[in-house]
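A reminder from the course coordinator: this example appears on the midterm review sheet, so study it carefully.

Given structure:
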């Protein structure tokens, strides 16, 4: 499929979301019971990036400090892996959140609370006001970036973390602070950006590297084992190794 065909399909789906799904979901959210709305208000701030970025930055700082004080190749390799893994998470989540912040302030889509007055398709470009910062959802972007980072590092956890991410993103719609398309576009941004970061890391052989059979893999199995990394990460690495070595054997 050509690029312009993909773009046409994407724009068509987006148009359906703006014209049909957004007003429908807004009306359903307004009709939701107070108890359900209170529940989603209670969980929605799990999507805030603060609780993700501050601990990650703290881990990076401690790892750098400990690496300087613990002499030895093995210690340096271990702390180096911690620093690289935490840096990957920080850049992925923080970078996606920064892009979302810039986009929402530039696009200036009115929040759902102005639905009755302005409708669901009102944009004030470069407004830089919270009331006109609906698209995309920052919470949705952050929680999906976090889920994608975890899914890349620990593949066995991907169903669990993406399930949580979907509910957190959906909560932004159900409590009436975002439209459905705001949450969806935030989820897309949060999912795509960590893979871009992974590619840049692999190009520099930071934490990741290009696998011989194609794709990516984590570096340093012995260091991962020493640090107690989950078996899911190491087994996925081993599977890539097996496929890459089986390929030449089959061709022979």
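Designed residues:
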């Amino acid at each position: 499929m050509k690029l312009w065909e993909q773009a046409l399909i994407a724009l068509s789906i987006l148009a359906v979301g703006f014209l049909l799904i957004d007003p429908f979901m807004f009306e359903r959210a307004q009709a939701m019971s107070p108890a359900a709305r209170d529940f989603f208000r209670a969980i929605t701030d799990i999507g805030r990036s603060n609780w993700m970025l501050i601990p990650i930055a703290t881990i990076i700082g401690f790892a750098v400090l400990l690496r300087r004080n613990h002499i030895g190749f093995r210690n340096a390799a271990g702390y180096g892996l911690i620093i690289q893994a935490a840096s990957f998470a920080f850049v992925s989540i923080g970078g996606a959140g920064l892009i979302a912040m810039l986009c929402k302030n530039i696009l200036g889509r009115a929040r759902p609370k102005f639905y009755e007055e302005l409708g669901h398709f009102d944009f004030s470009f470069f407004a830089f006001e919270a009331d006109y910062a609906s698209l995309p959802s920052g919470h949705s972007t952050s929680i999906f970036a976090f889920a994608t980072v975890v899914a890349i590092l620990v593949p066995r956890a991907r169903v669990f973390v993406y399930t949580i991410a979907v509910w957190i993103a959906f909560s932004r719609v159900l409590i009436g602070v975002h439209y459905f398309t705001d949450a969806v576009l935030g989820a897309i941004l949060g999912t795509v950006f960590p893979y871009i970061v992974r590619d840049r890391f692999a190009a520099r052989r930071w934490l990741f590297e290009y696998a011989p059979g194609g794709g990516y893999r984590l570096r340093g199995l012995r260091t991962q084992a020493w640090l107690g990394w989950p078996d899911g990460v190491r087994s996925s690495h081993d599977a890539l190794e097996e496929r890459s070595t089986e390929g030449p054997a089959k061709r022979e």
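The two ends are 34 Å apart (CA to CA). The longest helix spans residues 73-107.
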